[in-house]
Specification:
mainly alpha; globular; transmembrane helix; transmembrane; O-antigen ligase family protein; membrane
């Protein structure tokens, strides 16, 4: 009886519907991690994630003959970064917390790797489109209930009931910046769904309106910055894709060089830029926090204090950096500053390497490939990198999941190792597939 049951289960896991369901479940589980942690607690959430991971492993085993493992090349830079974060357990000042936090990081990474290996880009977009629609819609409903109908905060989900005053709102994801980031990525996702006719206009238009409205009601300067950068990046990609093929590569490298120059100029003129965007005191608060964090960096500047991901207020030095009153935060609100504290200069270097490689590969693919679906990873990475200036979202949970998927896709499609192992051109999925 045992063998037939196992065989039937594996056959079920081989089906495209099961793979699609696991992809959507994985994306949704990580997207609403905060809500699940608040409702069922960390043990319950981790148990759900572990069960999902076991199902993903079983699915990969069942589909091992279908997946083109020659194409499934994980980025060496990503593995090196994860390896260093894991090694930090050896010198961590809080080894038990590092072990738990790194295990959580590995679980989320595996979900991202499964999605990247098992689904074409258009299928990933469809799954994330469904997840983001649901998250934004439920977030808005809860905000309406809290801020208008009952006029009372929903403290367990950190919803303050301020929708009637025009926001800010935070929905299912704890903070307005995180909700705004999801909404900005949703705009890109919904627009590509519409362009590829994955959904009808009767779904696409309300979805875009929902995402745009969410961005507006977050009232977040950080999300405003991300939105502007996304619009500029989208316009640049649109222009590149309309150029003759022989001129595209030059235009791509020129834009990448311009981006590097812009980053240098932004650093040089950071003082007036800070003054310009500091209307609500957001940057002033962050500057003070960064200075406090950097005071601890020299103690372990090369190797870091140990990986922790989301800060644990009971572990030093985070116990002295997490306020008991005032504005709460569970990170350094800057990815590089956060990493420098946790995994040192080596970790920062490895992280910047994997981010740089993933972004350049994704950007080049977005300009070269015919299908518009290839612009999704590039624009998602633009959003994640931009928000990293003021948040550490890219390091953990949903931001990290998105990053791993984009990195895996970019590495599989455009890897330096492909030059050492030539392989046939991989067919692109049709928009309607």
């Amino acid at each position: 009886m045992g063998a037939p049951v196992i065989g039937a289960a594996l056959e079920l896991l081989r089906s495209p519907r099961a793979t699609a369901a696991l992809t959507t479940t994985g994306a949704g589980l990580v997207a609403i991690a905060f809500t699940l942690q608040q409702v069922i607690g960390w043990p319950g959430y981790l148990a759900a994630l572990i069960v999902l991971t076991l199902l993903l492993v079983a699915s990969l085993i069942a589909r091992r003959d279908e997946i083109d493992w020659h194409w499934a090349i994980l980025p060496i830079s990503l593995l090196a970064y994860l390896g260093w974060a894991g090694l930090s357990l050896l010198w961590s000042e809080y080894q038990r917390v590092t072990l738990i936090s790194f295990s959580y990081l590995v679980l989320v990474t595996f979900v991202g790797v499964f999605i990247g290996l098992s689904r074409d880009t258009i299928q990933v977009i469809r799954s994330f489109g469904d997840v983001l629609r649901a998250v934004l819609l439920v977030s808005l409903v809860l905000e309406v209930l809290s801020g208008i109908i009952f006029d009372a905060p929903l403290a367990v989900l950190n919803i303050h009931g301020e929708l009637a005053e025009g926001g800010p709102i935070s929905g299912l994801v704890s903070t307005r910046n995180q909700l705004g980031l999801l909404a900005a990525i949703a705009v890109v996702t919904f627009a590509i769904e519409w362009r590829t006719r994955s959904v009808t206009r009767y779904v696409a238009i309300p979805s875009l309106a929902l995402a745009a409205g969410t961005i507006a009601f977050t009232r977040s300067p950080v999300v405003g910055m991300v939105t502007v950068v996304l619009l500029l990046a989208g316009a640049a990609l649109y222009g590149i894709r309309r150029l003759p093929e022989e001129r595209r590569q030059f235009a791509q490298y020129a834009i990448l060089a311009a981006l590097a120059l812009f980053a240098v100029l932004a650093w040089v003129f950071r003082a007036p830029i800070i003054a310009l965007f500091n209307a609500t005191g957001e940057l002033e608060f962050r500057l003070k926090l960064w200075q406090r964090v950097l005071d601890f960096v020299p103690v372990h500047w090369l190797e870091g204090w140990g990986w922790i991901g989301i800060w644990n207020s009971a572990s030093p030095p985070y116990s002295g950096l997490t306020p008991t009153g005032g504005r709460p935060h569970d990170s350094a609100l800057n990815a590089v500053v956060d990493l420098w504290l946790q995994v040192g200069a080596v970790g920062v270097f490895l992280f910047l390497a994997v981010v740089g490689l993933a972004f350049v590969r994704s950007w080049l693919l977005a300009g070269r490939r015919r299908s518009v679906v290839h612009t999704w990873p590039a624009l998602v990475l633009v959003a994640l990198i931009t928000v990293s200036v003021a948040e550490s979202s890219i390091l953990t949970e949903f931001g990290w999941l998105l990053f791993v998927i984009c990195a895996v896709k970019a590495s599989a499609e455009l890897s330096w190792r492909s030059a050492l192992s030539p392989r046939p051109e991989r067919p692109e999925p049709l928009p309607h597939e």
